[in-house]
Amino acid sequence: MNTFLGFGREHIERHYRKTGQCVYLHLKQHVIEKVPGASGGALPKRRNAKLFLDLETHSDLNSDDFEYEDEAKLVIFPDHYEISLPNIEELPALVTIACDALLSAKSPYRKQEPDSWEEELQASKHAKALVQLDNGVRIPPSGWKCSKCDLRENLWLNLTDGSVLCGKWFFDGSGGNGHAMEHYKETGYPLAVKLGTITPDGADVYSFDEEEPVLDPHIAKHLAHFGIDMLQMQVTENGLRDNDIKPRVSEWEVIQEAGVKLKPMYGPGYTGMKNLGNSCYLNAVMQAIFSIPEFQRAYVGNLPRIFDYSPLDPTQDFNTQMAKLGHGLLSGQYSKPPMKSELIEQVMKEEHKPQHNGISPRMFKAFISKGHPEFSSNRQQDAQEFFLHLINLVERNPVGSENPSDVFRFLVEERTQCCQSRKVRYTERVDYIMQLPVAMEAATNKDELIAYELKRREAEAARRPPPELVRAKIPFSACLQAFSEPNNVEDFWSSALQAKSAGVKTSRFASFPEYLVVQIKKFTFGLDWIPKKLDVSVDMPDFLDISHLRARGLQPGEEELPDIAPPIVIPDDPKGIYSLDIDESSVMQLAEMGFPLEACRKAVYYTGNLGAEVAFNWIIAHMEEPDFAEPLVIPAFGEVASSGAAAFGAVGLDNQPPEEMVAIIISMGFQRNLAIRALKATNNNLERALEWIFSHPELEEESEPALDMMDMENNANANILAETGSEGPRIKDGSGKYELFGFISHMGTSTMSGHYVCHLKKEGRWVIYNDLRVCASERPPKDLGYIYFYHRIPS
């Protein structure tokens, strides 16, 4: 009653012992089957008039067969004395007021996300009786253009007469010439659907008359009138399903294994996650993360210890939230099969009773996205960017002696050669993902692609349905070859010539990680700078050997470039520093990874145009800062650029905290090793380092030798090449042979839209994780993945 924190039955005793707080409000919600015919077709009714805590109801229970009964009571510890509510006679007035305030309070999630809750779409008043003209209009699934101008973006289909027109003032903020609105003013036809948003789950519909986005409960029927079969993602000339239609090959169908009856999976490790509104990227990544034994041991294996030492507000503790989520996914408590008797009853009665399966990661998402301009929104995000964001948080919040993110970390050796002097320079950097370019020029079905493109253009010109999709088939070996080939270094300054020259750079693995994460770089920018995705098929191998990419270091006969820094050019006019050039090619490379454009510009600027790789390390080190995505403000001549100074300290491998900061913490009575560990975990931020120490009290009790050993890895199968500190980053080197055990796939045209699904190999068979649905996979689409997870094969 003092903190507004909620606890389950198994954790309430721990909180009482830890805090001494003894008065708790116990809330319980009962779901009761209605008497047949009692509801009169209405939605479920509550037995109690008061809806306490604005509790979220299960969507499957919103039927005519169930109703709710709410129960509230005070519980006094340690004797578990219970007082039913309301009880005005026995309770003091202050306690009664406090209970009423708690029961009527809004959910904290609705407070955090007002836009997503207060702007829930309502069904349009025009939807039920919408008049549709029988004018023979059929809409192709692509190649649209405004019928009054040449715009091909932000197009809306009027659901009355089938006109395709551009928008202007719609809720999605995209531009246009307003022809859709003009058409409404001329005709009065009220509803339009945005082309490009139609999926089997629905579409964006706008009501001109009601002046807001709306729901159209009959959208499938309205689209079918114009030849669009929304549920099957197929357009036919008569608007009806054709039994002779060829097998479909769209991403949505193949990746989600549509059209195949999939067997549900239950038990530990087979728990689904609710989509909170464009949160499938988070669901897919976390399913993959918690399939890895090191993460299971670090968080779920240490769950009692993490919970015991959690701060007084566990909602703001990363390790607590990770342990909670991992337990939800791995315990099996939220993934139970229906009883056999229930199944028989459902078959006999031809009805479906709801199953309380899956978890809702609201608290985890609220914490992990706090302060991040993108992840804190309800927009779709890049799963690769979220993976790096998560790894950054794991690095900053170590749990015990094992840092699970070590399994992804590896060293990259970069060899830069001056083309004129032939001298070389070798540098190393830390990375977590192997990014493979898509070698489109190596497609094995070029003739088919050319023929398909001709047919597609003909169909577009004639407004006919397009031909069956032909997807470019790219050999994995070609992508690997493109990764290993030398790349030109833009604006290369040769220390041998002490002048700008041509330079090339090649990347090799200085170490191989325990788990190799491979990203296929499908996302790019079109000529109009609009993000798009390459719809390709890459024959990803089940077994991968990259031993030939092992770095070899300086070779006999090679001569190193002198260690001379380029001269600092101070302009005659100090204001000239404002016009400092920024390497836009590096900016766009980072933007293709999904990072905010302004953050990419700052990263390239603060790392002195040294290339995308160095700027990438800056992003990883600074993505938690509140101004991460704010526009770049270049300091005036003579000013101190604090971010720039911090940048160069963060990208090096010898990221030792400043000695003066260490001395300040030691003067407060803490051990030196603990001070260094806290500063490293918080990017050398003194204030945050002190908070980190106070939030990890268990580390103060450790002896100094134990702290010295805290960064040592205890995995017997790993060969530890280096440890934290001045010797370099912790890495687990070993063989370069791997086996595929999981992949994340994306459906849609860009990272800003679409849907993510995860496939994992468990107990010898593939399983598909599609938000709440967890099923045995029949046809895992390994060639259409976006991020792949490989595990090292023990030698």
Automatic annotation (TrEMBL):
The keyword Methyltransferase is annotated on this UniProt entry: no
Chain residues that bind Zn(2+): C146, C149, C166, H179
Nucleus among keywords: no
GO cellular component assignments: cytoplasm
Main location class: cytoplasm
UniProt-listed PROSITE patterns: UBA, USP_1, USP_2, USP_3, ZF_UBP
Residues of the UBA domain: 581-622, 656-696
Ranges of residues in domain USP: 271-793
Active-site residue numbers: C280, H755
Matching SMART domains: UBA, ZnF_UBP
Catalytic activity: Thiol-dependent hydrolysis of ester, thioester, amide, peptide and isopeptide bonds formed by the C-terminal Gly of ubiquitin (a 76-residue protein attached to proteins as an intracellular targeting signal)
Xref: Gene3D superfamilies: Cysteine proteinases (3.90.70.10), DNA helicase RuvA subunit, C-terminal domain (1.10.8.10), Zinc/RING finger domain, C3HC4 (zinc finger) (3.30.40.10)
EC number: 3.4.19.12
All copies of domain UBP-type, residue ranges: 122-230
GO BP terms, alphabetized: autophagy; protein deubiquitination; proteolysis
GO MF terms, alphabetically ordered: cysteine-type deubiquitinase activity; zinc ion binding
Subcellular location: Cytoplasm
Keywords: Autophagy, Cytoplasm, Hydrolase, Isopeptide bond, Metal-binding, Phosphoprotein, Protease, Repeat, Thiol protease, Ubl conjugation, Ubl conjugation pathway, Zinc, Zinc-finger
Family affiliation: Belongs to the peptidase C19 family.
Assembly with partners or alone: Interacts with UFD1. Interacts (via UBA domains) with SIAH2 (when ubiquitinated). Interacts with BAG6; the interaction is direct and may mediate UBL4A deubiquitination. Interacts (via UBA 2 domain) with AMFR; the interaction is direct. Interacts with UBL4A; may be indirect via BAG6. Interacts with NEDD4.
Protein known as: Ubiquitin carboxyl-terminal hydrolase
Species the sequence originates in: Bubo bubo (Eurasian eagle-owl)
